[in-house]
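Entry 12.
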Amino acid sequence: MEIYAKASLCIEEIKEKMRCGCDAVEYNLEYDFFQKGECFEKNYPPQVFTMKNVGAVHVPYDHNGQMMNLERVFQKEDLSPVRNVFRLAQYCARIWEHKVLVVIHASISYYEFMEYELLRKRIGKELGCLLQEFPMVDLAIENVVPMEYKEALSYSPRLCNGIFTDLTQIVQYLRESFGDRVGSVLDICHAAMTQKYMNALLSAADFLPQGAPPDKIDYSMEHFFKANQGLCRLIHFNDFTGNGFAHNHGIGFRSQDKVDALLKLYKDYGYDCPLTLEIREDDYCDCINYRRAKSMVEAAGADQ
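Predicted 3D structure (C-alpha cells):
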C-alpha cells in the first residue's frame, strides 16, 4: 500500500513530507493557481515538480474558499482553470513516467445529474476532450459532507445532495464512456461526518423504516467501503472532531483501534489504492501530526 502526502507547490512543504516519508505527493493547489496556472512552469520553482514523485493533483478552492466541484466547473463558460489542473497533472506524469490523478469533489445528487441533461452532456463532452488531450491523466471524484459551513461567511450553511451512493452512481455512469479512467476518491473524514450528521437526521425521521437501514440510507463506514469497491482510486485518510469544520476537519487519528478497523475494511474489501494522509498541521514545515498518522498506519499494517 502506497502512502501519499498532501503538499502545496512549496519547496519547504515538499521537503518536509520527504523527511517524514511518503511514496508520492498529492498537490494541494491553492487559490493562487487561478492566477499562476496558465504558466505554472514559469510561475513556480521548477524543482517542485521534480523533487518528489507526484501521484495526484487536487483542484483548488476559489476566492470564496469554495471547492471547484464537478458540477460547478463544467457549467462555467471558461474551463481554463480545470484544464490547467489537467495540464499540470500531464506535465508531472511525463516527468515521473506514470499516470497522475486529478481529484475533484462532486456535491450533485445522481437524480440531479440525470435530470440536468445539458450539464450532464457538457460534462461528458468536455471531460472526453480533456482525457483525450491529456492521455496520462485520469479523473477521480471525491465524496463530500452533507453540509458546508464556513463561520466567517455571511450566508447560511449549504446543504449538499451528492453525499453517498450518488457519487458511485455518477462514476459508474461516466465509466460507460471513459472506462476506468474515471474513478472515485473515498475521503474518510467526509464519510465519518456524513455518518454522524445523516444518522442524527434519520434518527429523527420517524417515518423511515426502523431497525436495520436499507442500503440507500445506510451511512456506515463499511457501506462506504462496499459502495466504492472496484471504483476507488485513492483514499484520503484522516479524521474529524466536534462539528468537523475548520480546525476540526482533516485531523490525525486519536485512536489506533479506529485506524486498525479502517485498514481492516480496506483489506476485507480488496482495496489496493494509495492512501493520502491529508492531515492538518499547525506548521506544514514541521508535520508532527502527519508523522503520528503514518506511524499508526504502519502499526496497523504490521498487525494485519
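Annotation: The longest strand covers residues 100-105. Residues 80-96 form the longest helix (17 residues).
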